[in-house]
Amino acid sequence: MASELQAKRLWLEEDLGDDYRWSYRVSEVLFSGKSEFQDVDLVDTPTFGKVLLLDGKMQSTESDEQVYHELLVHPPLLQHPNPKTVFIMGGGEGATAREILRHKSVEKIVMVDIDKVVTDFCCKHLKKNTAAFNDPRLVLINDDARTQLEKYEGTFDVIIGDLADPLDGGPCYQLYTQEFYRDVVAKKLAPGGIFITQSGPAGFNSCKEVFTTIRKTIQSVFPTVISYAQHVPSFCDCWGYNLALSDPKATLLSAEEIDARIVERIGAGVLEFLDGETFAGLTKLNRMVRLACEQETEIYTADNAKFIHGAGVKA
Fold first, then answer.
1. Where are the beta strands (DSSP E) in the chain?
2. DSSP bridge pairs for 61
3. Residue environment code for 216-251, b if the CB has 16+ CB neighbours within 10 A, otherwise e
4. Which of 36, 127, 253, 308 yields a CA-CA distance of 20 to 30 A from 204?
5. Amino acid 125: pLDDT
6. Quick one: DSSP state of residue 261?
7. Which of 157, 200, 172 is closest to 68 using CA atoms?
8. Are 78 and 92 contacting, i.e. CB atoms less than 8 angstroms apart?
9. Are 157 and 100 in contact (CB under 8 A)?
10. Rounded distance between C-alpha atoms, residue 258 and residue 261, angstroms
11. pLDDT at 2 over 60
């Protein structure tokens, strides 16, 4: 009887490379469809809770999305002296906007995600983020992020790249290029502005896929780049971030300064994962990853793109 019940269980497999994959049990398929740009799935699982997948790759889970989003949002906003305006590239599930809105100084967020199917669905079904979608400080636009950023009349204190991973044929890979960072992002940052992007797998076996190249590319545009990484269980790897300071005189906050700004700007006990000591530790990349970063020579361009394993809808 037990074996019969086991056979009826639904397991979802995700390819992590050409020769290996992982699987996890699915309790219920909440949505499965395809937009103009990508496959979109939402499933419920015993291990991770609700799981959002784009093009078959796990993007976010209830169990650990808080860690990913705290590390994407709060380091750049805390580093900035007074962040009032923020531009989000991607961010369709709404969690990035949710974390930004914790900052008392923020007056306006422009979030541009190309896929209305994703934003509509996440607003309705990811209840933790619904309030962010309805906040009057958020302007949501379903369009190409580059187009909207280029034509925006004004600048931003912080620009955040919460894009899908660069997949061959996917909608986002051209937003990781030197030309985009140089000719669009840098020009749309206000004086002293800060840019950050999620940068893919950053483990010692995986960092050369895209993380080190993205870092090298951003370093070719901005005077200071801080790289850091944290293991995210649902991503099956350490995940990397690259934070760029546009002010050549700016220096990274100390752990004590970060803690003080968290209390002042967000409130004590609000963040679940991040504090000053944690961030200081995450910027200390292990020796193998540091060497890979130091030895990287490639610059990410539209003609010289690198992709993580997988393919987008249009590939």
1. 10-15, 21-26, 28-34, 39-45, 49-54, 57-61, 85-90, 108-112, 138-141, 156-162, 189-201, 224-232, 237-245
2. 51
3. bbbbebbebbbbbbbebebbbbbbbbbbbbbbeeee
4. 253
5. 87
6. H
7. 200
8. no
9. no
10. 5
11. no
Q: In what order do the strands lie in the sheet with 85-90?
A: 138-141, 108-112, 85-90, 156-162, 189-201, 237-245, 224-232
**In 3-state terms, what secondary structure has residue 62?**
coil
Asked if 162 is an active-site residue, the reply is yes
- For residues 262, 267, 273, 278, the Cα torsion angle rounded to the nearest 10 degrees is 30
Task: Decide if 112 contacts 89 (C-beta within 8 A).
Answer: yes
- For the residues 289-296, what does the mean pLDDT come to? 98
Q: What are the angstrom distances between the C-alpha of 210 and each of 155, 176, 223, 242? A: 28, 10, 20, 12
Which residues lie closer than 8 Å to 303 by C-beta, 6 or more apart?
A: none
> Tens digit of pLDDT for each residue in 238-289?
999 999 999 999 999 999 999 999 999 999 999 999 999 999 999 999 999 9
Helix (H, G, I), strand (E, B), or coil: what is residue 159?
Answer: strand
3-state secondary structure 196-254: EEEEEECCCCCCCCCHHHHHHHHHCCCCEEEEEEEEEHHHCEEEEEEEEECCCCCCCCC
Considering 55, 162, 237, 259, which one is annotated as catalytic?
Answer: 162
Q: Which residues of 107-121 are buried (b: 16+ CB within 10 A; e: fewer)?
A: eebbbbbbbbbbbeb
Q: Which amino acid is at 99?
A: E
pLDDT, mean over the chain: 91
